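Quarterly update from the structural biology core.
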Amino acid sequence: MLVISVLVRKNMLLLNHKSKKISSNKIPLPSQILHFSIYAFTLLEMLVVIGIIAVLISMAVASYSTAQRKARDAKRKADLKAFQNAMEQCYSVNSYSYPNITGGGTTSISEDCPSANGPDLTITDPTNKTYSVTSSSTAYTVTINLEDGTNFSISNQQ
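Predicted structure, tokenized:
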């Protein structure tokens, strides 16, 4: 009985904020025990919070996908710049002649420099976009359609 009265007294002090403080040596009366109010969220408050969370999540997903798209476009541009550098290096060590570019119209292109000192490079698109290639021993152009709707091209610098 002592354990029950201590538990009731402890709960009474926590839940009954309107009643007078109960001294620690008295057992609370039944009217004091039943006199507490319960605070809870209403359905409307819960729906508002869920709606706000849903809007925040949708904004985060949209910005994340935009960031991914921009990162893939940046990778495409960097790959094509590296490809252009490799082509120009091969041009200078291969008797001023550009190597053949293979893989035009596919998602992967490569150049194989015939010179022993020349660089060999293959690049592959991260999302299977195709490269458009025009190539000869004196000139080349490589173009890819970026995800932002624009085209990015590299061409010979000589």
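The first helix runs from residue 2 to 15.
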